[in-house]
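Subject — a protein and its fold
Fields — amino acid sequence, structure tokens
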Amino acid sequence: MLLVVGVYVVAGNLLNGVTSGGRGLAKGAVPAAYTTLVARWGNLCPALTPALLAAQLYQESGWNPTVVSPADARGIAQFIPSTWATHGIDGNGDGKRDIWDPNDAIPSAASYDCELAKYVKDVPGNTSDNMLAAYNAGAYRVIKAGGVPAISETQNYVKRIRSLSKSFAAPSGRLSPSRQAAGAIAFAQQKLGTPYLWGGEGTADQGGRFDCSGLTQAAYASVGITLPRVANDQYNAGPHPSRDQLLPGDLVFFSHDPSDSRAIHHVGIYVGGGYMIDAPRTGAVIRFDPIDGADYFGATRVTEDGAKALPTTV
């Protein structure tokens, strides 16, 4: 109970914290194979940032360079072949424009974004928002509407990419605490001593047992936030505080590859003092564990908007 009260006290002291990020990328948020490309091409024009570009790519394909959508959108940037024919570029200078090659597709996505930004540069409102709206609805509709058009799909797209981009941006200041952190911790505390179950989601037929990401998912579900099922997708549910800015309620992650969030294999709920509550492994129980291991990867401050912005399949 003291721990939960302490979370509220900390939250009350930091509600005026800064939540915006700069033009850098959060550590490991973009898979190592694409980090340089996203960092370089995400700075192609002022309306685009590496984090916005990363959010679009993650939303479109989940970093899968071979995926094909039901609408025949292809590759990591999900270009329709007809759009690729007019907007695809030879990003790596090998003399070919290959829709399947991230070295071409990622630069092409950035180039297309910036082309749209030029079309809507004189439209009232935020240029980046108008650029994203043009990507979804077309530049003509943005120009005609004098900003983001009153189309729910387009408005949701802009909000989703903006929210998701916070998960890819390196924070430039102190992050505001999560208001739901105390409730999530309280849920996890009630499960201390429960035996671990691989694939466990706490259902009655599973004896109320959890695995690591099942526990964190259920903890935040108890306070009205829906997280993805697996740990490496949960990493993108909000911005990433540094180790010295951790607050109780942050999710803490562990990865086999320190440069790639897709290699995350474990997650727990930070409770302060260098400790987390986690469901560690088969044969163990939900317990307090130290977070400072060799495979510590980073943390996420879960936000409702960040969780809602995550694609349903990645």
Observations:
- The chain is about 40% helix and 10% strand.
- The longest helix spans residues 102-119.
- Residues 228 and 234 are 6 Å apart (CA to CA).
